[in-house]
Each structure stands twice: as structure tokens, then as C-alpha cells.
Amino acid sequence: MKKLLQEILAGIITAWLFSTFIYLEDWGISIKLLNTLLGVSAIAMLLYIPKRAVLFSGFFIGLFWFYWIGYSFKYQGVGYMEPFITLGFGIIYLIFFAPLALTKKPYIRALLLFGLSFVEPLGWNWLKPELLFVESYIGIYKYQFAIVLAALSLPALIKNKKYRFAPLLLLIAALNFGYVPQEDAPLKIKLVQTHISQEKKWTREQLYPTISLIFSEIQKATRGGYDVVVLPESVFPLFLNKEPRLIATLKKASQKIAIVTGALLLEDGKHYNVAYKFEDGEFQIAKKLVLVPFGEYIPLPKFARKFINDTFFSGASDFVTAKAPTDFIIKGVKFRNAICYEATTDAIYKNHPKYLIAISNNAWFTPSIEPTLQNLLLRYFARKYGVAIYHATNDRGTGVIK
Q1: Is-contact 309 299, C-beta < 8 A?
Q2: Which of 77, 196, 243, 373 has the fewest beta carbons closer than 10 A?
Q3: What gap in Å lies between CA 182 and CA 349, rounded to an integer?
Q4: Local structure of 288: helix, strand or coil
Q5: Does residue 196 share a domain with residue 106?
Q6: Which 3 state secondary structure label does DSSP give 120?
Q7: Cβ neighbourhood burial of 351 (10 Å; 0-12, 13-18, 19+)
Q8: pLDDT, tens digit, 9 for 90 and up, residues 230-259
Q9: 304 in a domain, yes or no?
């Protein structure tokens, strides 16, 4: 019993080290040295703790990183599922890290962990081990993560105590010596952050105040001399293409300022989560390329997908996607478009765009660490691909990310 309690404690400590950087960032604390020490310690613990402790660490990592995912289910009318979803993510990441528990040898665990860094359970890619170092002195590229794993695992192979810790010198090669250069877009861009609660967002009573707020923000940006105003994901809580008067008003406003806004699209009986770009009296639609697992599609075989969709989501998780990323040309400048989750996927950065406009609705998960984790992931992708990201959100997270 005592041994089991020790293993549980070791697992919790490992998970805490693996997660603390997110909570510090959420509290406005970002210290590179501290994040470096926490990240290196977390990886070291995963390589050396007892086998059963690895399973406990995976479970608590799942909870510490993703406890908030169940929050959104109450807006689907299945709020009773929230604790089961939270528990489910603990189990998913217990299984995810379980291969490390098959061996005691740190260098084999290091190889397994490097392999796991390429795995996305059920299509969900928000747990990236390299993310531990996004605000540290260590870089976020795969080769740097491999060097960290080598530096921390090789001491187990050296029997001479005098030189046992010599491999730690390899950490020097994993230091961040700079990322791909990023440039600011040559336009004056207004990023709008709204604060519309998810409980009210889709109600009839909130519709007209929301539309009034949208046009007020467009007018303020126009008076402020901005070239572009960017509004959050689904800020128009309706199928905008079915609202000709709103389309006409937006077209008129776009004679003075380019407008990028989130809304829904109904086309051939299919639902799309989209972004609209209005400029010079014309508009273009960007359909979402990557959907949110279990939020906008069910990543399971067709028979299970239909059952879960009909039983738990009332058919709501039936959005469809575009076939390729969409680029907007705004005032002669090319911007890749991204809607929420897809801004944190490699697919949207195909062909290395220079600038990216991202729109999100983070009110699904308020209050939680979700906006902070999303922001850290956006920094990861911005630095990995050398992109300047212009992010407009409902709730928290609005800003330029580099």
C-alpha cells in the first residue's frame, strides 16, 4: 500500500511538472528559466519514475490539461456528461503514455516518448510535449526535443559515476538560438474581442444586441483609420448567407474598411463554420478545413458516429469541411484564414503562409485555462512556421501572436 501511494504521488508530481507552465501563463507569469527547469524535470520524471507511476502521471496530465473540455457539453443539452468527459480524457492520456510503462529503461522510454510526440489520440493534437518549452530557453523543434530526450536518458547507460551526467551537456545543443523570422503585416488591423456568454449567444434576445455591437465595432475601426477589422468566430450567430439585408449592409460598410467575420453557412443542406471577408462591396467565404473532434465531428467509425451524434449531440456535430486552406487577399496582402481549432494544426500552415487571420469563440470553455493553452499552441505554430497570427476571439485570447 505504501509503495502504491508513493507511485501515485510520483505520478501526480510528474503531471504537475508537465502542466505548471500552462497555469503560470494563465496567471500572467512567464519566466523562461523556471519554464526550462519545469520542462526538463517533467521529461526526466517520465523517463525514470516507476512503471505504475507513469500510468498515474498520464491520467493526471489528461486532467490538468483538458479538464475543461466537458464544459461545452452543457450547451449541447447533455451537461450531465461533463464529469464523464473529464474522466475520459484522464483515461485517454493514461493509455497514451502507457507504452512508457512497458519498460524501466529510460533510453527506451525516450524513444517511445519521441514516437508519441507524433501521435494525436482521436484526432486531438493539443498535447504536444514540445509545448513545454515554447516559453523557455529550449527550442520547440523536433530535433531539439530529441536532444532533450537523449541528454536525459543517456546517463542511465553510463556506469562510470564520474561521467554519468556528462550527456546533460547535450542540452546546450537543444537551446533556442532563434526561430524563423516573422514580419508584421503591412496593414493596420483592428482585432475585436467580444464578451458574449455562451448561454446567451444563440438566444433570440441576444441577436439584435450582438448585431448592434458588431456594426458599432466596424464603425469604430473605420473612424480609427484601420485597413481591416477582424471579428470572432461565429460572431454572427446565424446562417449569414440566408440574411440578404445583413449581407447588403456589410457590403456597404466594406467600401470603407475590409471586414473579416465569423458566421455560419447553409449550402445544399450542409452546415459550415465559416469566415466571411467583405471588401469593396464584394465578399468571399472561407470554409473550415479542420473540424474539432467531438465538437464538430465524431472521430469514430460511421455506425458509432451516427449513434453518438444523434444520441448526445442532437445531430449538431455534423459540420462539413473545405478541401483546402483558404487565402484572403486583403488590400493586396495575402492572409491564410483559420477558424479556432484549425489554427493549431499543421494542415492550415501548408505552403508556409506569411500572415494568418485566426478567429475563435472561447466562451465554450469559460472559465478555464483553454484560452491560455490555445495561445501557447498558436505561439508554437507561429514560431515553427514563421507566421504572424492575427487572432480575434470571443472571451479571451485576442492579439497578435509571434
Answers
A1: no
A2: 77
A3: 14
A4: coil
A5: no
A6: coil
A7: exposed
A8: 999 999 999 999 999 999 999 999 999 999
A9: no
C-alpha cell at 201: 449567444
Angle at 178 between CA 32 and CA 136, to 5 degrees: 15
| CA-based nearest residue to 229, from 379, 359, 378, 39 | 359
CATH number of the domain that 382 lies in? 3.60.110.10
How many structural domains is the chain composed of? 2
Residues with Cβ < 8 Å from 239, sequence gap 6 or more? 263, 264, 265, 266
How many CA atoms within 13 Å lie on the side-chain side of 197?
4
Q: Tell me what the mean pLDDT of segment 184-203 comes to.
A: 95
User: What residue has cell string 533556442?
Assistant: 176
> What amino acid positions are annotated as catalytic residues?
233, 288, 340
For residue 191, give the amino acid letter: L
Asked if 292 and 72 touch (Cβ cutoff 8 Å), the reply is: no
Looking at the fold, whether 139 and 283 belong to one and the same domain comes out as no
Chain segment 71-108, per-residue pLDDT in tens? 988 877 777 888 998 999 999 999 999 999 999 999 99
Residue 276 C-alpha cell reads as: 466571411
130 alpha-carbon distance from chain centroid: 14
Instruction: Give the DSSP H or E segment for 93.
Output: helix 82-97
Q: Between β-strands 355-361 and 388-394, what pairing exists: parallel, antiparallel or unpaired? A: parallel
What are the distances in angstroms from CA 146 to CA 86, 152, 179, 399? 31, 10, 17, 32
Closest by CA to 120, choosing from 375, 365, 345, 381, is 345
- Residues 65 and 30 both lie in one domain: yes
| Alpha-carbon distance values, 133 to 119, 120, 219, 358 (Å) | 18, 19, 41, 23
CA dist., res. 292 & res. 290, Å (int) = 7
Rg of the chain's alpha carbons, rounded to an integer? 23
Domain of 225 in residue numbering reads as: 189-289+324-401
The letter for the amino acid at 60 is F
Pairing relationship of beta strands 189-191 and 228-230 according to DSSP bridges: parallel
What CA–CA distance (Å, rounded) separates 346 from 239?
Answer: 28
| DSSP bridge pairs for 278 | 259, 283
Question: Which tens digits make up the pLDDT trace of 258-310?
Answer: 999 999 999 888 888 899 999 999 999 998 887 777 666 555 555 555 555 55
pTM above 0.70, yes or no: yes
Please check whether residues 105 and 225 belong to one and the same domain.
Answer: no
**pLDDT surpasses 90 at 180:** no
SS3 313: coil
Give dist(CA 288, CA 143) in Å, integer.
Answer: 31
